[in-house]
Structure prediction request, 993 residues.
Amino acid sequence: MPRSLVITLIAVSLMLATAGVLMVFSSSAALAYVKYDGDSMYFLKRHLINLAVALAVGAFCAFADYHLWRRLAWPAVIVAVSLLVLTLAFGVGSYAAPVHRWLKLGRFYLQPSELAKLATVFVLAKYIARRGQLENAYEKWLPLGAVVVMFAAVAVQPDFSMAFLIAASAFVMLFLAGVRFRYIVGAGALVVPLLAIMISAQKYQISRLISYVDPWRYARGSGYQVIQSLIALGSGGLLGRGLGASNQKLFYLPQAHTDFVYAILGEEFGFVGAAAALAAFAILVAAGFKTAARASDAFGRYLAAGLTAVVGLCAAVNLCVVTGLIPTTGIPLPFISYGGTSLVATFAAVGILISIARRSGVDSAFGYARREMPSASLNGTFVDYV
Amino acid sequence: MATKGRLVAAAVVAGAALGILTLRVADLQLASGDDFYALSQQNRLRRIPVRAPRGRVYDRSGEVLACNRPSYSILWMLPSAEAVPAAALERSASYLTTTPATLAATIEENREFPYEPAEVATGLTPRELFAFEEVRARYPEMTVVSRPVRCYPHGSLACHLLGYVGEIGPERLAALKARGYGLGDTVGLAGLEYAYEEYLRGRDGFEAVAVNALEKKLGLEYAEETTPPRAGYDLHTTIDLGLQLLVDGLLAGRRGAIIVMNPENGDVWALASSPAVDPNDFAAGLSAARWAAYAGAPDHPLLNRAIQCSYPPGSTFKLVTASAALEEELVRHDERMPLPCGGVFRYGRWRFHCWKRSGHGSLDIAGGLKNSCNVFFFQLGLRVGIDNLNKYARKYGYGAPTGIPLPHENRGLIPSRERLERKWGKRWPRGEVLNNAVGQGQILLTPIQELVAFCAFANGGRLYRPRLVTRAADGDGVVRASFPPEVRGVVGLEPATRETIMRGLIGVVNRYGVNAHYLAGKTGSAENPLGDTHAWFAGFAPAYEPKVAVCILVENGGYGESYLKWGKEIVGYCRENIIGGAAWPQPPAGVTPADMEKSKTDEEVAG
Prediction:
């Protein structure tokens, strides 16, 4: 039932966001106290501002017709690429690593790669929905070229995990679109060695890989973070230590409030809380796929699938890092990790999903009763509300 | 459209990922939760190393020669790079009057592992310490620790004997790593500090403290995790502080060495080498400039001249020549050499001079020793020959380390037929033995070898290994190791030989009228390529029952006789303060030093 789908999407994302507020405060208070002269709510306040912006953006996306994003697909690509280029020139990194991932805007930081993620989904959804009616080579290859450009721009920041996410999301969309396996395999055969070469060119990537194989041997060095993460998660036990009682957030686990917030969640709320968070993400992904399946048109279907893939893959990669299943890499946990751009992008994705769900074929609650339109009529000038 | 089927496939993959993650989290939290909880508890504890003080070094009556003083350092306590807040770095840097960048570099440099406390300031003065304590609440990222630093209360006194300590170097660390040494540890680098490292070094402890988010100590809740340090064992040495002060003072401003020993057991009462350095400089960490000054000084103050430098012995070696001649029965006790001393001795094309150009006339062996007549000993040397000279030099312990428990002892050099043949071939110059007979030529001894040899003569033949440390004891006085006197060999002289030579040695001292203590010995003025002769005196007192032996060497010091008065002063000190005036053996009734020099044979000759 689409209405229940909308409610599910809203309820799950608000629950996850609430957990995020709690966890960001709990895991960042001590760090903020030390780092910002006793202002233990420093990160919480910023997170709440981010969340307000994210909710506003999400509400706008939910109420706006999702076909807007078809029209904005190319502008989004252009903005994303421009910002990525700007980031390469003026971006700032974190800590000591020579990376350029953020643009500093006043007191806030913008992560253009998050926008690139969404732009990839927009442009691919538009393209896949119209396949079969593509008139020339230019129309056929330009969207794929745009995705490759964004992938490359993110990869050279360098931010391999985000580049990987972009590629993987594109892969999921193409897979769902029914692209023949040999094309997908061919593209994979091209991308995987490329990633391998880029990874091996970076010293810190190598040490991450080595410490992934045997983190305990490098417990004091490159394996430190993942070990501290496992300690945090593991020491939570069944019921956890209770909200605020994490020990690992007291500087033992670096990035406790950003990429490793799930470890603190597991420490404070135990297996019960950790499993609940997993379940919430699973429900969200299921609802996203359901939205895709019920979308009233092909664009909506691929848009929903792509956005679900982006959020779901992001969560999966982050959770695998925190649980030590894959090497350490910097992907935030949607909804929960501290980080404004990610939060806004996530809520934008959920908002668009809601918009798609609202307009699905059998959804009449909002005054729309629309059959699935033939793809041909969805070209360009579609306006579906007054 | 294949979408539906593929959507299902995607959902299956997503479901599988969810399943794997759930299992993983369950494994971590439910199956291994307790283990991780234990690890997490360890995280709350900071192990702050507590340095063990090195054992003290005492003189023979319990005076302190080396001890420890506390030195205060500031530790940087924040563990992770992420948590080093710019504000904290800035305020701490400004407190330590440095820049944040320098401070950050110092932190990274001074810790072996990331996330461990790092030293950012060392050697705080009491004033700086109190100043910091007053404001430390404002700097939660820093704390003060104290560590013991080696201290030598008498400065450069006996510095070559005591040695010095410093930070362990990479080679030594590699060798000692298995015994628990780590980066930045203090280790003995010379002298007793080096030789008795295993006793002096204690075992570092750890203070486990629970810390809160600000790395402030919350208190010692975890006593069972705390290991107290064990202080190193104290060394009780044979050194006499007063005597050491005396001999150090005598040598001040000169290059040379003085060693005083108990001939009855090999205990070293004083060992001085000059010029000296202040070992306190090393303990606090030597500046590069200071090190360059020490290492590059033309008079090499770091060398322990008493054991690490060998010199031509000059006439003091006549003890060996005389012993060899008498023991091998190459000369009778009252025999006079065919050629009376006329100041010069011709051998082949060569002319060998006596020190006294006007000559000594006709002498027997005791007279030859007393007057140190070269012409007499040239003729004796020809009879003894290079092989016997080598044999008796070895008996007296020359050419081999004495085994004094100090590092880098020089073994010296004694002449031998093999060596001469290696250098010159079968036609080695036979006149070389003339030089060797009077302690010149290819012959080098260390002062400690000289002293051990004279002690052996004095005590009837026992060649002692010099002893510096009698025992190592812990803080409660429980003896952990004791080092008894050790006899390394026996010279084995006939009593008649000893008596004859003794008469000569007493005569040496009597000639200069300084013999209130019945001192016997031999002076030497060793020619060398470096300028004025090296002055030697080796002797013992009282001659009838030796209680103290002394060896004096002054580089380029001129004539050995000039330092007899030092010998008298040293023996006088020992008689009063070490042996004790009453315990000083009384000479046989009515005998004066001059009487002891005379013997039956002498009187018969005179008569």
